[in-house]
Amino acid sequence: MYSFIARQPIFDREMQTVAYELLFRDGMNNSFPDVSPEYATSKMISDQFLCIPIPRISGKHNSFINVPHQMIINGLSDTLPGDNVVIEILEDAVPDDALFSAVKSMYGKGYQLALDDFTLDSAWDKFMPYISIIKFDVRQKSQDEILQYINRNKPLLKGIQFLAEKVETREEFELYRQAGFMLFQGFFFSRPEIMKNKCLSQNSLSLTRMMIEVNREYPDFLAIEKLLKSDLTLSYKIMRYVRNMLFKTHGIIQADNLTLKEIILFLGCNELRRFVSVATLANMNSSAVTELYHQSMVRAKFCELISGKINNASLSYNAFICGLFSLLEVILEFPMDDLLKQITIPQNVTDALCEKKGVLFDILNLCLCYEKLDWDGASEICQTLNISEFSVIKSMQAATKWADELSLHP
């Protein structure tokens, strides 16, 4: 399964790239498809920011993301990493009290906010203390209109950067540069480029059950944990999501020892519902679960079962996650170490998947030997782990049956 975005650079006064605006696409055709803005933004969050390593999207630069009015009010834009994303409030947003409250809240959490295609309406005045960037569409407003507005409201606009968008000529660039604009965007500099990335397919039945569970009056956290453990996509994305939340609330970038149960308790009902809302909106055109997903589930259960047979039950959860994520590199076509830097994951899992060392790697490698019919290799690992070859066969049969049942009844 692939995801698509158009990436248009934003330049400074020296014509150096300082950010990218990311635009939703559903294929290699470089135009906005016939979908709702809510679907487009949710799909971009789910497929890009909860899936693809951020440096692969915009490198060291910030990303500008269009977020519709209602999604800001509902707090769904909080799923984005606030340290390297600029939230664009669209030109058709209504500057009402609900939006004002949400903007103040996001500003307090450290987000940068931009007014896109700014209309010069005075109704936005009260928002200005919380706005970092104003984007002026030079095709919609004349330079005289724009500069008159700026000069008339200088105290109000203090500290805000001005961006001239849809700049198409060198002359326009020089005019706005001389007028004090700091940022520029448009076809004069660069047309949007399409980026095609592998993304994680979502099992819609599993997601539906998750949505039902988190929206109960009293959600069953054990049932939610079970659903997460049965779905590779949800497990990886919720780990990306909680990493964003930890950074925003505690300044923590990596939390190595959080289990899925602890993640659920940390997020709580409201954040779980927000996460599932984004995943659900983005899943309207979902694909079927591939064989690689089934294989990931088999590996996860196998590793969990083997960990119990080596008298080290404390490894059970980490072994499961190790097997579950062992094919992420193949599915997403990104290096494993880049992917694991984006989530909260125990160090011994990272050691196994990236460094190929430790007892978890021995357990995973036993599974790989079985898959490749490498009986000599499997026998050697069985001796190292002090388990019988027969128990390995039984564990693989049980793991395969478990994964098959999940595929039929997620």
Percent helix, as a range, is: 40-55%
Low-confidence stretches: 284-289
Q: Specify the biggest β-sheet.
A: 9 strands, mixed
Mean of all residue-level pLDDT scores: 80
Category from helices, strands and their pairing: alpha/beta
Give the distance, in angstroms, between the N- and C-terminal Cα atoms: 20 Å
- Succession of helices and strands: EEHHEHEHEEHEHEEHHHHHHHHHHHH
Rough outline: elongated
Q: What is the percentage of strand-forming residues?
A: 5-15%
Going across the biggest sheet, name each strand in turn. 8-7-6-5-4-3-2-1-9
- Total DSSP helices: 18
Number of strand segments:
9
What is the gyration radius calculated from CA atoms? 24 Å
Protein model, in words:
- With 410 residues, the protein is of the alpha/beta class.
- Helices cover 50% and strands 13% of the residues.
- The protein contains 18 helices and nine strands.
- It has helices at 37-49, 54-58, 69-73, 97-108, 143-152, 170-178, 204-214, 221-229, 232-250, 260-281, 291-309, 316-324, 328-332, 336-340, 347-355, 359-371, 375-385, 389-408; strands at residues 2-11, 17-25, 62-67, 85-89, 112-115, 133-137, 161-165, 183-185, 193-198.
- Strands 8-7-6-5-4-3-2-1-9 form a nine-stranded mixed beta sheet.
- Helix 5 links the parallel strand 6 and strand 7.
- Helix 8 (221-229) crosses helix 10, helix 11 (291-309) runs antiparallel to helix 12 and helix 16 (359-371) runs antiparallel to helix 17 (375-385).
- The longest helix has 22 residues, at 260-281.
